DNA sequence: GTAATTTGTGACAAAACTGTCACCAAGATG
DNA sequence: CATCTTGGTGACAGTTTTGTCACAAATTAC
């Protein structure tokens, strides 16, 4: 699975040298010599990161960044601005207008590669790694999955939500009312004791893996997930 | 809601100046003069971003980054390395070992602020904006919520998963078998026609908001969400 | 020690969910 | 047009989920 980098650079020598270096580092590249060419490319391909020059023949790199950030499909792509403009206020402007990083020419290819990797690590890693974990209990809320010691745990929707609330608040005391409002909302009336019953059920589900003990009762207040 | 920045810097003059500048820009700050002090702070507070020097009295900033990246609770915090080490291979090393950004001293405070904001924009914005949308249907899978034109839609778990599959694949044709495998997995046998019944149910749920028409039948193959 | 309060628990009934089926409607083919 | 194939649909039965309740157990207070 190759990462794709879009290079937006009007100087052909620089563009080709960059593409060559990137390909040698294992990336696939797309190239554009102007802002409009870049936008056309972006209608057809979704690069994993874009390297943008400031001075393009048909628009400024800043304007291109603006447009990308406004496009619902590609707005989140990491962008590194690579330009000869080295003034402090240029850097501030580029970063404020939506670049994730700003590098001045002439730039070390090694440094550029390292920065590309750092940004990909964050944008890709966030998605891959965004799980809630506590003592061997792993939840991917987006995928609606709970794994304990490598085994899938089957929970009802209410119990799933309850466990998620605990995993989002490890070692924090959750008052019954807080739990009530969070799981059932403020516009639904359920008995206070319903929380306790669901806690019982969640504990039962976790018991097969000896994880029920982490849900601890704080008498008179509520419960907490703690080791 | 203030963003919290942890400054890990042994030079008191630099540390205080940074803290002052950050506070003037609206950030709250925590301070640490050493790696161990930083780790102790991180046991009690969760900053939104960390600025780390390389040369600390008790450990290198690189080692501190390693430790942070290995901690399940705080590993995703953005880190900017701010250091006098300006060699190319230092930069590469810092970025490879987990820094999101690398800035050499003496550094412009304005540039540092702009970079801090860029990183916060990404780490905070990713979470806030990561929703699936199609023609007024908005799903936050992590929160198990579906909103249509501002109104919550109540779906059963199976229908929720089905809608999610569609929203993840807008304008793509999904064969029945693909849907079957995705929702029920390969180890559960259900009749082919079960898909059609669940499509019916999903369409019924969407009908109240006139959104059922976006689920389109492709005869002999399956279904697609398309406008 | 006793009484009061809080939490744990099993059981129940109602509601919701789920997959299947038979029949009808729509579309494709010869 | 007739026939066959595929998708839409309402209904059904079984399972699961859900909230409540009464009683037992545990904890706290006097």
From TrEMBL, chains A, B:
Residues 4-120 form the Response regulatory domain. It comes from the Bacteria. Residues 129-227 bind DNA. CDD domains: trans_reg_C (cd00383). This is Response regulator. Residues 129-227 form the OmpR/PhoB-type domain. Keywords: DNA-binding, Phosphoprotein, Two-component regulatory system. InterPro entries: CheY-like_superfamily, OmpR/PhoB-type_DNA-bd, Sig_transdc_resp-reg_C-effctor, Sig_transdc_resp-reg_receiver, WalR-like, WH-like_DNA-bd_sf. The keyword Cell division does not apply. The modification 4-aspartylphosphate is found at residue 53. It comes from Marinicella sediminis. PROSITE patterns: OMPR_PHOB, RESPONSE_REGULATORY.
